[in-house]
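As a warm-up, study this chain.
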Amino acid sequence: MIFTQENEYSAVLDACVLAPMALCDFLLRLAEEPAMYRPMWSEQILTEMSKAMRTKLRRSTKEVDWRKQQMTQAFPEAMVPVPHELLRAIECIPDENDRHVLAAAIMAHANTIVTQNTKHFPKSCLEKFGVLCQTADDFLIHQYHFCPQLILDKLDDQGAGISRDRAYVIASLKASATGFCKLLDAHAL
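Now compare it with the structure written out below.
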């Protein structure tokens, strides 16, 4: 898909959906050709992802650096600069530590923020900027309804990349995207 202003659907991926390997891998595969959307993130989001990978997932610095390098190499256009002045202007996000995510969405002209922490992003605030907020589960369900066969193909590609089958990949996504996995069980398998 060649993105233009008329057909581009973009999503800011929060650190909490980029840290878990299976979820990050699948979300980014959906952004590879043929792409279903354009991923976006900021330096602060990648910093938070790195910290979560080291502290919560106990990944080594080498593993974290490799993942970050692979992501930025595969999607160089995904990096969004976030001016500090914008962070101060977004007071409708209660937690100052989450404002950078909405700021990245505003700067990227993103359609949605994909996060597991939707309660951190009040709908009334996001509406002011024309941005949605979805869990990874809701985002993947939406993508499935948009193009089910492409989703299945991307699941198969992910499985092939680790010498596993689709069922293994779906099982690895269940903790992060339960509804999506139930939808796949009901419709695709």
